[in-house]
Write a structure and sequence with these properties.
single chain, about 190 residues, alpha/beta, Rossmann fold, five-stranded parallel β-sheet, 5 strands, about 45% helix, about 10% strand, globular
Length: about 190
Amino acid sequence: MCRADLGLAAYNTRFWPIQSRSPPVQSNANALVGVLMGSSSDWETLQQAAQILAEFEIAHECRVVSAHRMPDDMFAYAEAAAGRGLRAIIAGAGGAAHLPGMLAAKTTVPVLGVPVVSRHLQGIDSLHSIVQMPKGIPVATFAIGAAGAANAALFAVAMLASSDPVLHERLRAWRERQTEAARAMTAHLG
């Protein structure tokens, strides 16, 4: 839990931790949120979303589903998403970043797109690929990188909390702790 006495380093570690280089192999029949990535190299970014969902005790699953190398798997996942009870899909990809848009084309489950930092264009290419969807196929697009992944998860939490009073209270308390931690940073300025 965040506490008011945390300094900047502890705040950053708490809200944006980097832990593992490879995604867990995780499927969950009770998942409400799917966390999908185009490659295992995207896990460094997408794990931020998984950590937030775990913190809020939201059933989720993490999978690598490449739009270009596994198109049939990607389409099958998208087509089955609503029937399996998924309420949101957080999809992150770098470079061409077609995964979020192609998922959105095949499901009515809300897709939250996370551009992953790319080697050559620092994620601007990923952002443009995800944000420029044609009318009728929406993808909610978030910031490039770790902050975008965390915010996509928090957005999914907020969506679910709109019909779940217990989750709504958890989200309110989380935001209050975040505010307290930010205020505590001022005390360290001297």
